[in-house]
Batch of 2 targets.
Target 1
Amino acid sequence: MEILPILASLRKHRIPTVLIVLEIALTCAVLCNAVFMIGQRVSAIRLPNAIDEHSLSTVGLSGTDEKTAGSDIPRNLAALRGIPGVQAVGAISTLPLSHNNWGWSFGTSPDESIFNKKTVNFSLFFLGEGADKALGLRLLEGRFFNADDYADSSFGSAPLPETHVTLVTHSIAERMWPGQSALGKTYYTTSHYYTVVGVIADVLRPNIDGQGEASNYFSAFYPMSAEGSKGNLRRYVLRSAPGDRDRVMRAAEQKLIELNPNGVTKSAIYSDMRDQYFADMRSMAWMLVLVCVVMLAVTAFGIVGLTSFWVGQRRQQIGIRRAVGASRGHIMQYFQTENFLLSGAGVVLGVALAYGINLYLMRHYEITRLPWYYLPVSAIVLWGLGQLAVLGPALRAANVPPVVATRSA
Amino acid sequence: MGEGPTGEMHSVFGYYFDLALRSLRRNNALTALMVLAIALGIGASMTTLTVLHVLSGDPLPGRSGSLYYPQLDPRDGHGYVPGKVEPMDQLTWIDGMNLLQAKRADRQALMTGGDVAVQPDNSTLDPFYEDTRFTTTGFFPMFGVLFEYGHAWGDAEDEAHARVAVISSRFNDKVFGGGDSTGKTLRLDGAAFRIVGVTGDWHPNPNFYDLNRKSYNEDEGVFIPLSTSQDLSMAHDGSVNCWGNGGAGQAPDHDSPCAWMQLWVQLDSPAEVAAYKEFLVHYSEQQRALGRFQRSPNVRLRSVMQWLDYQQVVPDDVRLQTGLAFGFLLVCLVNTVGLMLAKFLRRAGELGVRRALGASRRALFAQLLVESGVVGLIGGVGGLLLALVGLWLVRRQPAEYAPLAHLDPLMLLATFLLALGASLLAGLLPAWRACQVTPALQLKSN
């Protein structure tokens, strides 16, 4: 297909040409950034989390007497264990994605303060005996806590547990001691230190920041005795077959209320809790999808409208070409190539614009750099869209009979 | 207009309007496409703009200008770079009490959030937890809290650690079935409180005075004196920031190096604001001399709107959505420019005839702009309907601000202005281009 005659013709129709190129460029720029934002949210929603998410339900218990809250735990656990279908139960301070975060910063040398820039902020999880199994934590190296670890740990006056053992996630191990085994290593804050006895697969924090951040997995676990827990082991986790979760959760709620008449319970199936956490993100992603689809439709119809007008204006010209020997295919190809060139120019401009917008968003929001492969993909999408939109008008053009050439417009 | 004295403007405009409607009817598909594009663009931008407008609104119009939030920096020297570090977002118990008792402002209230077990006498209602505000008497007059029944408690009750409570009307409906409940007894965390007031329609959004729980649509049901709440060691709910080797994390005690209180003050003139700021600096120096503070005075005194801005209370997603919607509107506009151009140029013949019959370029231009305006108005109506649907969808979302997403008269007006402005802008270039027709040429070819 010869391009020069097309360019010559486009030069004569400057305004419509510029408009189509501009529309495709804007669509491309908005689309790239919107799809990128959708992608970021989808990957956040799908973040892996190394606990047994689909087997867990949880009941929180509060409002009981502070003084007996600790000693009630073994009794409550025994009652929960008796519920048919329960495979494991444990008491814990918080859960991943529960919004209930207890953070503290630690460093790798003894004189670290919480305000030191070099320290790393962890989320603290306190495990009652058996909670590791109930959660289904996956050990990568070392060991879980033993009975002595649990018995020796308690809360004093500080907001940190009085123990010296800890389990850390793989991400913490990589961040604190890159390239080394974390086993036996110690991390510090002003008054406390903890030695790693085991490294576990990555567990999400109670609150996460964005997607793709290793810090989402900076979760550290500590043993905690029931008596010394000072009301910090308020959440019971129950593991059961997925089909039993709902029944187990209700039975557990009832049992806990029977045993603690003043207590107030709050229960959830873990996978619902996770869905709840990402509900805002999911609705944002859907709204972005909606805008993208509508925008593509508007652009496609815009191309159809302008090309139809164009074809209408050039009926006589087309007739003449047909009369002097051009086939229907030639005419179709003419409009398709023309659209290909226009889309191409639009995409090139659009990609530049998309990068500009991305740079602006990176400065002002928590957004990372647009990956390079968004550009060829969006180019292909817009080229395809243009070809699809031009098909109808091009067919109509191809159907202009050569006899039109003999009539005056 | 060139076609007659200005007295005939109206009828000329009517004529153009009539021409516009005829012309729009002639090209159904193209017109529908333009109207739809404008409606979609306007609908999307107005939905997101309304949400942004609601979320960045003034929580207490008329009052917020004289309310200020003092911040201090009582932390130790670690990590301190003078001039670069913001002071803490909340106050410690000791500083909060000191500033409150200094009474240097016209009004002041010290407060924090709590979570209190409500044990209704009504046996059909199980015990439940209620978001509670522990505060001092200044809260109610300073924030302009409206009362349906009764009144706030006073200084005497604060000092006496009295067991009195103010409840919200929602809470009153839930626990007492509505009506004047003043004088009734309410059991909170096992203690009996006498109800002195029921608040009326008072829902500041964002919940500026304590952004630690929920920024929007927070609905505290119970207000009790701060002093009383501490006597009963009621559970604190909100953020606690400790430094050094601070006390226990979840139940801060009064001496521990932890910030968990909010103080609001009312200052009615710029001079008072300056004087209060001076006072904060002086207080910091004094505390440093006493050895409590280790940093040089690092204070802020932000107004309500400055505080909301500093806390970035409007979610990033809402800003991004708005930006995206306006990008989409731009695409729709460029699209409309193209379609309008196609439409106007297709009528080159008709325009040529009008030119040949003596209509000036300006007259043609005006006629075409009226036509774009009509497209804009119809698109605006469509956009309004779409925005209403969009806001209805937003209200069904799980976000905490969702129930607030309603169109107000200002946004209604903005919708039509935006639609009209956008369509006139879109019509400008095509109308100019179409007016370039040479009358003779068009007559000849037809």
Note: Chain B has 14 helices and 13 strands.
Target 2
Amino acid sequence: MNEFFNEITVLSVVSLSALGGVAAIVLFVVAQKFKVIEDPRIDEVEELLPGANCGGCGLAGCRALAEAIVKAESLEGFSCPPGGNEVMQDIAKAMGWEAGESTPMIAVLRCHGTRELAPPKVKFEGVMTCAFAHSLFAGEGGCPFGCLGCGDCVEACNFDAMYMDKDTGLPVILDDKCVACEACVKECPRNIIEMRKKGKKNRRIFVSCINEEKGGVARKNCKVACIGCGKCVKECKFDAITLENNLAYIDHEKCTLCRKCPPVCPTSAIHELNFPPRKKKAEKEAEASN
Amino acid sequence: MGGVHPPENKLAEKQSIERLDPPKTVAIPLSQHLGVPAQPVVTRGDVVKTGQLIAKGEAFISAHIHSSVSGKVKKVDAVIDASGYRKKAIIIDVEGDEWADGIDRDESLLKDFSLDPKEIMEKVHAAGVVGLGGATFPSHVKLNVPKGKTAEYLIINGVECEPCLTADHRLMLEKGEEIMVGIQLQMKALGVEKAIIGVENNKPDALSHLTRLANDYTGVSVQALEVKYPQGAEKQLIKALVNREVPAGKLPIEVGCVVHNVGTALAVYEAVQKNKPLIERVVTVSGSSVKKPSNFMVRIGTPVSELIEAAGGVPDDTGKVVNGGPMMGKALSDLSVPVTKGTSGILLFTKKETPRPAEQNCIRCARCVTICPMGLEPYLLAPLADKQRLEECEDERIMDCMECGSCLYICPSAKPLLDHIRVGKANVGKMIRERSA
């Protein structure tokens, strides 16, 4: 018995307990003294955000957005592109505020210079990044405005919403996955990707070209380049199309998706997405006579 | 410090300079020099003479541009230049070869040192002379020593360390006297007593020729240099000749030196003694694929394709056409590109030589560190630049890189070190500008 309760055993138990007690008191005092009082609502808002830390809101991440929202005590001026309206509504509900509507946006690639339509004339060797290729030359197809096809935008996408189409050499944006965080827009050295209104039923009409060269020069490199002929401008009844620097641009705020401009474009530079197939003229007439 | 020894391949070194006739049309780019592009002073339909001023470079760092042919201005339009992009150029349809008044076309040597420094500088400015070594920095700016600084040495770059190129070598042999007079004029403009011509050991004929000529000119000496690349880079040359180090981010004038190329010395001679503006230059057409390696004296604005035609045309096995030397030059994407003031060579390489080997992992052999002439660590800079870690790039002195390509040449894993560093340099430069703005 004595072996277990000898002096050393007792001494160590007592001294360690005392040490623990002192440490606990010190820790308690320090914790009280340096307590950080954080608004519990920040955690609440952060919970509701998607947590992708994509930076699409313009802030460092979801936590930063939550802090900014709580600090401002309102949702005005803040948006979460991946979360969209739903998340903002949820936050508003949780905080007891009112949330305004924001229009859903989507990334749109404004170049259609595929390998077939803008055939490569030279072969690019070296680091396959758009940033490097852009600093070197106009591109394999020769268009100084066109997509370089090295996929910096795909690298930048945090949502798996883009991939490189091996056949066309152009990136593809997936409608259902793009959250409009603008990461690809910022990455593209040629500013080919634009944020446009998602449109009803994902329907969009846009000029898929940003080439500002004269028609003949642009057409030499790419069969589907906008040549700045202005036919679409005349066709549009809503003043949605403007022509500047040999390039037509469709204002997505004014466009009513009437589908009148794509057929008049001589180079098929105007694209329409997610529309039902057009009826042929004969079918239309038959329908009218019925 | 550092340096590599690529095979010299100076195929055209025995070919004397051949004068090419003006082509049918020339495209003279408005931006052939470092700095602000020149503004055209002619319009469509104007008739111009050879040597007539057609674009003015009024900004502090800019240069005048003269017509290299006589004829009618077809248009001022964008043409593809060596950058791979379309840039504004004056396109002239050639008619005859009528020279502007006041230009002395006599080949005899003139030695007139009566002009004062300011007059020399003004003549150089008026003639649109730029550095012909490749960087195309306006020469009159270099001849104007900034206040508070003094020039001690004029250093003349006759190194031509790039493999294949022989334009400067031929110039030294054939226009040695003119170069000497040009050097004397530059010395007078700068107010220096000493000029040193640096020539690599692989050009013994040029060395002995210039040494003999230098005896007649006070203050001019010729110095042989070890053969290595990049011996002809400004900072390396100053270190080798006068053993002074130019501080990072500073100009040679900081250590009392001004560096000019031998071609520039000749252009200064012609500008001052003959009133002849810079409208032609020597271009080496060489490379393993070319049929007849040559050195041509061509008018600025001549399409590169004409030069290749004169050297025997483009052989079927040509894989790449490079503008400039094989180390620092850039592949051309179009052969209609015009010769500019900075075009030192057009090189054709075979399909077998040109493809880059497959990239492999870095084996930490540190060869790139050993050979970097600026004492940088390319193996480290490349991934940092690739990952956009710009502050770290700046700390590792990425801006000191002169893009000589030695690291890319030596790397046993064929890593595209310089490609990444170039993008990184551009990004860091942008970051620094934004910070100071």
Note: Residues 124 and 136 of chain A are 10 Å apart (CA to CA).
